[in-house]
């Protein structure tokens, strides 16, 4: 199949890549752009390990063609780091609570939770659990992940309340 040059905006940087129309976003991010924080799990939209933010909303990169990302902003886990490479406060909460063991599911978990928190409000634990229904973890039993996200949501909510 003929390749064409597309320009993708990922983590605030432009990447010009030669791809075929059938190339998946997951493969292009991981193999062509070299983002190892985008993970292949099931390849069928079931496990959530390949989650990236697409214009701020979580999507499964294994279910999208890379050409669909032209003209949109894609954010992977490392896009949450600040310019000095420091962890995002949500990642800090995962560290504090031990919400990551092997770490394979962590990028998807963090990005799904990050998108939810950006929408605002103060989701309950049950609402957080529901939001993560498409993100599977084989290690942690979810409790520590939920603890981490719950504390982050509280932190964001408290910061907003302090703003004039
Ligand atoms: S690899 Fe995409 S949802 Fe599992
Ligand atoms: S920490 Fe290992 S799969 Fe979630």
Automatic annotation (TrEMBL):
* Residue ranges crossing the lipid bilayer per the database entry: none
Q: Which organism is it from?
A: Saccharopolyspora elongata
Please give the PANTHER family that the UniProt record associates with this protein: OXIDOREDUCTASE WITH IRON-SULFUR SUBUNIT (PTHR44379:SF5)
Q: What is this protein called?
A: (2Fe-2S)-binding protein
Phylogenetic classification of the source organism? Bacteria, Bacillati, Actinomycetota, Actinomycetes, Pseudonocardiales
Instruction: State any single GO MF term.
Output: oxidoreductase activity
Per UniProt, the keywords (alphabetical) are: 2Fe-2S, Iron, Iron-sulfur, Metal-binding, Oxidoreductase
In terms of CDD domains, this protein maps to: fer2
Every copy of the 2Fe-2S ferredoxin-type domain together lies at 4-80
The answer to whether the entry has keyword Phosphoprotein is no
């Amino acid at each position: 199949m003929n390749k064409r040059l597309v320009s993708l905006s990922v983590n605030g940087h432009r990447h010009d890549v030669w791809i075929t129309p059938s190339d998946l976003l997951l493969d292009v991010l991981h193999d062509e752009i070299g983002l190892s924080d985008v993970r292949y799990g099931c390849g069928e939209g079931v496990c959530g390990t390949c989650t990236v933010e697409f214009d701020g909303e979580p999507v499964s990169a294994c279910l999208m063609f890379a050409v669909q990302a032209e003209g949109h902003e894609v954010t992977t886990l490392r896009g949450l780091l600040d310019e000095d490479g420091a962890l995002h406060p949500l990642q800090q909460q995962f560290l504090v609570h031990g919400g990551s063991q092997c770490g394979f599911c962590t990028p998807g978990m963090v990005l799904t939770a990050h998108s939810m928190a950006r929408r605002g409000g103060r989701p309950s634990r049950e609402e957080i659990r529901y939001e993560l229904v498409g993100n599977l973890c084989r290690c942690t039993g979810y409790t520590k992940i939920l603890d981490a996200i719950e504390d982050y949501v509280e932190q964001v909510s408290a910061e907003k309340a302090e703003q004039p």
